[in-house]
Design brief:
- The chain has one domain: Muramoyl-pentapeptide Carboxypeptidase, domain 2 (2-Layer Sandwich), CATH 3.30.1380.
- The chain is an alpha+beta fold.
- 37% of the residues lie in helices and 11% in strands.
- The two termini are 20 Å apart.
- The longest helix is centred in the middle third of the chain and has 16 residues.
- The radius of gyration is 16 Å and the shape is globular.
- The chain has a four-stranded antiparallel beta sheet. Strands 1-2 form a two-stranded antiparallel sheet.
- Bound molecules: zinc ion (ZN).
- The site of zinc ion (ZN) has 5 residues, from β4.
């Protein structure tokens, strides 16, 4: 891994007072930002999003296949830079949350799979966004049966070892 990137992350972690034991404690890997990103469709909120070319092609194929089965898969969030992850942390700290609370939900900068440009948070029209009951939707059932065919897997299942909340909406593409 690029030593400059690692150094930059170390400085950011010191700024946020993220414990040096974070990586060891969570077991989360360090993720690098990709060299190439492409614009996707606008997300559920009407925001621009980006993915790696491979992940976007796979996402489109998966969405189309789901649509043919009568299932809508909504993109809620895709690529996030390290800078953006820092903004999220800063915003939540400013809103009065503790670092500990925040890190249960948001990975520390460098440790979010969204940095790779291959992870997507997926929603369904009948479900409030980013809520555990996404697991009760037909979209989730469809993903469980079909996502692997398109290279997508659920990264943070229930009772995962990373100390990250169960995220039925978070799926990652690997080539
Ligand atoms: Zn996610």
């Amino acid at each position: 891994m690029d030593p400059q990137y690692v150094g930059r992350l170390r400085a950011l972690h010191a700024q946020f007072k993220i414990p040096e034991t974070y990586a060891a404690q969570t077991g989360l890997p360090l993720y690098e930002e990709p060299d190439e990103l492409v614009e996707t469709e606008l997300d559920f909120y009407g925001r621009e999003q980006r993915l790696t070319p491979g992940a976007f092609a796979a996402w489109q194929a998966m969405q189309e296949s789901a649509r043919a089965d009568g299932i809508s898969l909504l993109m809620l969030s895709a690529y996030r830079s390290v800078d953006y992850q820092c903004q999220i942390l800063r915003r939540k700290l400013d809103a009065g949350q503790s670092l500990e609370q925040i890190l249960q939900v948001n990975a520390a900068p460098g440790f979010s799979e969204h940095h790779t440009g291959r992870a997507i948070d997926i929603g369904a029209p009948e479900c409030p966004v980013l809520e555990e009951r996404f697991e009760e939707t037909t979209a989730f059932a469809w993903l469980q049966s079909n996502a692997a065919n398109f290279g997508f897997t659920l990264t943070y299942p229930r009772d995962n070892n990373c100390g990250i909340t169960y995220e039925p909406w978070h799926w990652c593409f690997s080539a």
